[in-house]
Design a protein that fits this description.
The chain is α/β, with parallel strands linked by helices. Helix content is 34%, strand content 21%. It has helices spanning 26-43, 69-83, 97-101, 117-125, 143-152, 177-183, 193-196, 214-222, 253-269, and strands at 2-3, 6-7, 15-22, 46-52, 87-90, 106-109, 129-133, 158-162, 165-166, 172-173, 189-192, 198-199, 208-209, 228-234, 248-249. An 8-stranded parallel barrel has the order 3-4-5-6-7-8-11-14, surrounded by 6 helices. It is globular and about 50 Å long.
């Protein structure tokens, strides 16, 4: 799958979807994008900037949602133009698909909404690349239905994103077998390590997280020879307006990605064995 000047694929060099969870301000978005761009250029990592203009699925009515569609797309366009990078953001309503596609080369369907037919059809009709987060309540084989639904609407430019499964209350667990199952659906697979660290509702009015495990969990996903990683970072995660407990401190980005890139290169140099 081609995107600007690079290809996304399970046997291709690492693609990183990285940025911030929700757009808190224009200046913070530019700072985060600049840091990601510098590090990914240095390490020769294919880069897509990620941020949300609206978090419509927050735990509490008092939680910060974002700047909204119009202001959010203006910020995303400025990031894309300033740093010459593609951008990805999520949509929650069918009528958001078209305006988002004019700015973002990748449209993301949130995990809770991956089965919403009208939303899938609207996104597919833009002919953009569509990334589907695997819902926490679905098994990996069930994502075949999501892929077929999008393809039936005329769009097979599909990425699948693993982000863990619900395991009891307030917990997510990543089954590494899911990566291989998703790859059999003939789509590039991305690992959302940030949201896989969530403890949903763990703080009562918001989500808790386990960012101390972000490197080890990211390595587990990258070891499966997948297309790329989805990562959120923040200059001060404890002050982030959404999912701070899962975010990587921005100051650690280069050290983190250096190890991830080295592992990705090593894994993809290995010969696959057919043990079926």
């Amino acid at each position: 799958m081609k995107l600007r000047n690079f290809e996304i694929g399970n046997n291709k060099p690492l693609t990183l979807m990285g940025g911030m969870n929700v757009l808190e301000s224009r200046d913070l978005a530019m700072q985060v994008a600049e840091d990601f761009k510098k590090v990914t250029d240095k390490l020769n990592i294919n880069y897509i900037f990620k941020a949300s203009f609206d978090k419509a699925n927050r735990s509490s009515i008092t939680s910060y949602r974002g700047p909204g569609l119009e202001e959010g797309l203006n910020i995303l366009k400025e990031v894309s133009d300033e740093f010459d990078v593609p951008v990805i953001t999520d949509i929650h309503e069918p009528d958001q698909a078209e305006p988002v596609s004019e700015i973002c080369e990748v449209i993301q369907i949130p995990a809770f909404l991956a089965r919403q037919t009208d939303l899938v059809n609207a996104a597919a009709n833009t002919k953009s690349i569509i990334q589907f987060k695997k819902p926490q309540f679905l098994s990996a084989p069930e994502m075949k239905n999501v892929v077929e639904k999008c393809a039936a609407a005329g769009n097979s430019n599909i990425l699948l994103c693993e982000r863990g499964n619900s395991y009891g209350y307030n917990n997510l667990v990543v089954d590494t077998l899911n990566f291989q199952i998703l790859k059999k659906l003939m789509t590039p697979v991305i690992f959302d390590v940030t949201h896989s660290l969530q403890l949903p509702g763990g703080l009562g009015g918001s989500t808790d997280g386990r960012r101390e495990y972000v490197l080890s969990l990211a390595k587990a996903g990258i070891s499966q020879s997948i297309a790329g990683l989805f990562l959120e970072a923040h200059p001060n995660p404890d002050e982030a307006k959404c999912d701070g407990p899962c975010a990587l401190p921005l100051s650690m980005l280069e050290e983190f990605l250096t190890q991830i890139k080295e592992l990705d290169d090593f894994i993809k140099q290995q010969e696959n064995l057919d043990i079926s």
